[in-house]
Design a protein that fits this description.
- By secondary structure, this protein is an alpha/beta fold.
- It has a domain of 203 residues: Rossmann fold, CATH 3.40.50.1100.
- 45% of the residues lie in helices and 15% in strands.
- It is built from 20 helices and 13 strands.
- A six-stranded mixed sheet has the order 3-4-12-9-10-11, sandwiched between helices.
- The model has no long low-confidence stretch (mean pLDDT 94).
- The chain binds pyridoxal-5'-phosphate.
- The site of pyridoxal-5'-phosphate has 17 residues, from helix 12.
Amino acid sequence: MRYRSTSRQAPLTSLRGAVLRGLAPDGGLYMPVEIARRSPEELEEFRRLPFTEVCFRTVRPFAGPEVPEEILWQVVSEAINFPVKLISLSPALHVLELFHGPTLAFKDFGARFMARLMGYFVRAETRGLTVLVATSGDTGSAVAHGFLGVPGIRVVILYPSKRISEAQEKQFTTLGENITALEVSGTFDDCQLLVKQAFSDVELNKRTFLTSANSINVGRLLPQMFYHVAAYRQLPVASVPLIVSVPSGNFGNLTAGIFAKRIGLPVTRFIASTNANDVVPEYLRTGEFCPRAAKPTLSNAMDVGSPNNFPRLLDLCRNRLEYVQREIWGHGATDEETLSAMKLVYERFGYIADPHTAVGVLGWEAYRREHPEPAQGLVLATAHPAKFGDVVARAIGVAPPLPERLAAYLQRSKLSQPISSKYEDFKQFLLAS
Ligand SMILES: *Cc1c(COP(=O)(O)O)cnc(C)c1O
């Protein structure tokens, strides 16, 4: 498969080129040049074959023939070594739990897959590769764990000081080895900007070999198709239209959902479920896209004021508002609504949703109010409730039990380095180390 830029001013490249570069040289985002629809027979097989096999078949056309099949098989089977669970709260409302990986959030899919793929792509390089990642919470831990101990790769994680939970912070600031965490005095958007500036700094890029692990990297998006496959395998045969509500921040997850739909998985419509950072729902309503500073909320992994996958959504919808609207419906929820949704879901179904998942439930409920025709909702549950134990306790009165994996990290001490949000400081750090 060849990859092209959403800005269409850069030459086509291989998967290796797209994954190692992250951002295209024209500033656009890499997209596969085609997304082939699978035959009904093949999709039928997707329901029957073992999950690893189906993930492998899903991603094969995007990686072949460049990545040999045995390598791709190894990448898929090592990366996706945890289950995806479908919980039906009612016949019309399902929750797809994507948080059974090592860091208890959906980002494990993308990060683990991409780390292994990059490890393969750089195995013959002499210069060490530095992976830069800005995180609003969960990306950092997923990426850090994905790359921990991968030879030839150093990971530098930037995160906004005091804006993420202790549990999130401890998961990626305590690892050491090839993982460095920078605690930035600023917002997530500041962190994201520093990473962008580093990539567009010609001098820096001559002296260091940089790449990104943010959701702009197509290597993270591809494996996010897998859970739509998992849903397809576990949902009752879809005679009722399926509406997928995606708790969204940078919109990588929703972009991958559209990839999955394009290969033929039955999704009638997606819901862009956001918190108060609702630039995409606003765009869907008004046609105006106005990125702005992120506002802090209880669902902080989605505190993104300038969603970096937006150009991909437009690209997939031929840059036409009416096509985007046909594919995606949007809803932004407040923190108060999020807390009451968590309480309601707990009281009605006995289910503990984390704040991000609750935002997804709210998106589905808002959609239902405007679209009374028969449909079933699938909410992507993006994080384990224990990762946001304090918010859960506020909403339902009890804190979810902390899984052992997480508890162990809380005991460890933080190794991060404080840094300002000035680009010069960041550049000095990169050149010095
Ligand atoms: C990253 C994240 C999101 C947002 O995903 P995007 O692909 O950036 O839209 C939602 N929920 C949780 C828990 C996350 O970590």
